[in-house]
Structure formats: structure tokens, C-alpha cells
Write a structure and sequence with these properties.
alpha/beta; 7-stranded mixed beta sheet; 14% strand
């Protein structure tokens, strides 16, 4: 057992660490939620990790994304993640994809290779594509619901999507999944009522663009907390 993982091995045991090292996980989206999920998986001893994100780091990411620093602004998120991850655990089997997930691009991924899939992207179409592809391959999938416009990380919880309440994104996803014959899905969501930033904030905000999602408020503690909760669920499932 390498010294870097000794503290984790005390909790997971030899068999658990071996299972984790043999596993391959795909994290779709490495923003405020997914970046912390990926980092926790890496530091816990995961053997193989796929990171999928086509976005570049911007200054507005600095408040909540672990790969966002002044020195990485302008870089692809997966490139910044690769440098940091390999500096932590150079032996991890890491694959990165600069791909925007759609119904057309989802076929690029062989879901049968994965032992677990994390959906941490923010488009409904992409989330549905990931979930349906994972289910078709018989691979466990966990999906992050909305963490924007929230201030209380203690209201986050894991649940079946059929049991969710309050979260607008969960409501939309529940409806769309039912149309596709999916009644059950493990999600991370918040019971906190979203803050209406357009009526509450005294900061000048851009008007929402018709047909597009309004820019949400976010912070350095709710999305990361969500990402860590998801990572803990993935690890506990993988070592069973």
C-alpha cells in the first residue's frame, strides 16, 4: 500500500482499496460539482478516471471550481485537471475528453467500460443522454441536480428522483425521464428553495436571454459539498 493512501486504507480495508483501484469511473462535467467529485475519487485511490468537459476555465469559475486558478484561466478544464491529478497520483489511468455531450456525441463513449458514471453537467438534453446510455449499459449512474442559487449545503441530500421536492431541475428531469420509461435514478439535490437573485440581489445582473437558462448565483461551498457527497456515494458503492 502506497503511503499516500494509508489513511484511506485504514477505513476501506485492503479488499476495499483493491476494488477501488480496479474500478473505472466517468465524470461528465468538471465544474463546481464535478471537479470536487473527481478530486475526491483521485485522492481516495480510484484506479481509472475519465473526465469529460469541453469548457475552458474563466475568471468567473474562480469562486467554486477546484481546477480554476489564475494560472489556469483560458485552459481547457480537462487539461488543467490532468496536470493537477497527475501531480497528485501519477499512476492513475486518466482519460480526458473535450466533448460537449449531446444525443449525437454520446455514442463516442463506451459505457460498458465504466463501473460507475457521474453526471455533473447542466444541460437537460445532455443529462438525459448520459443517464439513458449508462442504464442501457447496466452501469450505475448518479446525477447532480441544481446547486445554483443555494446557500445552505446542509440541505443537500441523496435520494431517488421520485422522492425529490423543491428542486426545479429535478422536477424537469423527473418528468423527462418518465417520458422515457425511467422512474428511478439516484440524484444529489437540495431541499433549499432557490434564491430569486433577480428580485433579491442589489448587484446589477444581466437580463436573461430568451430561450436560455438564466445565469445562476453560486458560491464556494454548495457545489463543492455536492461534489464530495457524490464522491462518497460512488466510493461506498464501488467497495461493496
Amino acid at each position: 500500500m502506497e503511503e499516500a493512501l494509508i489513511r484511506t486504507a485504514l477505513l476501506l480495508g485492503k479488499a476495499g482499496m483493491e476494488k477501488l483501484n480496479a474500478a473505472r469511473v466517468a465524470v461528465f462535467g468538471i465544474g463546481g460539482v464535478g471537479s470536487y467529485t473527481a478530486e475526491a475519487l483521485v485522492r481516495s485511490g480510484l484506479g481509472a478516471l475519465d473526465l469529460i468537459d469541453n469548457d475552458c476555465i474563466s475568471e468567473s469559475n474562480l469562486n467554486r471550481q477546484i481546477y480554476a486558478t489564475r494560472s489556469t484561466i483560458g485552459q481547457y478544464k480537462v487539461d488543467a485537471a490532468r496536470s493537477r491529478i497527475l501531480d497528485i497520483r501519477p499512476e492513475i489511468r486518466l482519460t480526458t475528453w473535450k466533448t460537449f455531450v449531446t444525443n449525437e456525441t454520446i455514442s463516442e463513449f463506451d459505457f460498458s467500460q465504466y463501473d460507475y458514471v457521474v453526471d455533473a453537467i447542466d444541460t437537460v438534453t445532455g443529462k438525459l443522454a448520459i443517464i439513458l446510455a449508462a442504464r442501457a449499459a447496466g452501469v450505475p449512474v448518479i446525477s447532480s441536480m441544481g446547486t445554483g442559487n443555494k446557500l445552505d449545503p446542509t440541505r443537500l441530500e441523496l435520494a431517488d428522483i421520485s422522492k425529490t421536492s423543491t428542486c426545479p431541475l429535478a422536477r424537469i428531469m423527473r418528468k423527462e425521464l418518465r417520458k422515457r420509461g425511467v422512474d428511478h435514478l439516484t440524484v444529489l439535490y437540495s431541499k433549499e428553495e432557490p434564491i430569486d437573485i433577480y428580485s433579491r440581489s442589489d448587484f446589477p445582473l444581466p437580463e436573461p436571454t430568451p430561450g436560455r437558462r438564466a445565469i445562476p448565483g453560486s458560491n464556494s461551498f454548495v457545489p463543492p459539498a455536492a461534489g464530495l457527497i457524490i464522491a462518497s456515494k460512488v466510493i461506498r458503492d464501488l467497495i461493496q
